[in-house]
C-alpha cells in the first residue's frame, strides 16, 4: 500500500444497517410500508406534503436513537490517522459518520438532521418535526421547510468535488452499497478510468461488483475495521 496516497471511500446503507437503520431497499423496494414514489420524490411532496413530512419526521426521530457501529468508528480512525488525502462520500442521510468522529466527509444525498427552506434557500440544523410548518430560522417564513434530503429525480450534492476527488484518487473503496443508484454506482468506473485501484467491501456482491479489482463480502462491522488496520499498519 506504499503507493497509495489519495483515498476516496463511498459508503451506503450497509454501513448503517448494523446500527439499526433500515436499508432503503428492504422489503422489495418498500421503506417502512411506503413506496418510494409516495415519500421520496418532489412529486410526492407536491401531492401530499403532510404524508412526506410525517414520514421524514419519524426517520429524523429514529436516527437520533441510533449509535455509530464499529465500521463508522474504523472509518473515523482512518480519517484521523491517514496522512494522505482522504474523502468519505456517503449516500447515507444519517449523522453516524460525524458522531463517530469523521471530518473529511460529504453527504451526497443530504442529511436528515437538516431542513431546507425553499423560500430563502437556507439549510439549518434541525432535530424536531417539520410537519407543523415551523418558521425558517434564517428568514422567519413559515411553511417552506422541507427535509434537506435528495429525492429521486433531484441532483445529488457536491458532485463537482466528488468527481474531482475521484479523478485524483489512488484507491476507491465502496462499502455497503447496492451498486444500483446512480450517479454513485458509476463512481467505480470513474476511478478506474483515472487509474485507481478499486475495492468493494459489502455484505454480498453489488450490482457493479464486476467493476472492482478486489471484493470482500461480509458485515461492514467485521470487514471495515480489519481493512483500516491493514491500511494503517
Features:
233 residues; alpha/beta; Rossmann fold; SIR2/SIRT2 'Small Domain'; 6-stranded parallel β-sheet; 3-stranded antiparallel β-sheet; 9 helices; 11 strands; 21% strand; elongated
Write a brief caption for the model:
By secondary structure, this protein is an alpha/beta fold. It has helices spanning 13-17, 36-39, 42-47, 49-63, 70-81, 96-100, 159-166, 187-193, 220-232; strands spanning 7-11, 30-31, 34-35, 86-90, 105-107, 110-117, 123-125, 145-149, 171-175, 197-202, 214-217.
Helix fraction? 25-40%
Q: Which strand order does the major sheet show?
A: 5-4-1-9-10-11
**Number of DSSP strands?**
11
How many domains? The number is 2
> Could you name the ranges where pLDDT drops below 50 across 5 or more consecutive residues?
none
Major beta sheet summary: 6 strands, parallel
CATH architecture assignment of the largest domain: 3-Layer(aba) Sandwich
Bulk shape:
elongated
CATH topology of the largest domain: Rossmann fold
Strand residue content:
15-25%
Name the structural class.
alpha/beta
For the CA atoms, what is the radius of gyration?
Answer: 18 Å
What average pLDDT do the residues reach?
93
The termini sit apart by: 10 Å
Order of helices and strands: EHEEHHHHEHEEEEHEHEEH
Q: Can you identify the CATH class of the largest domain? A: Alpha Beta
Given the structure, what is the number of helices? 9
So, the CATH homologous superfamily of the largest domain? TPP-binding domain
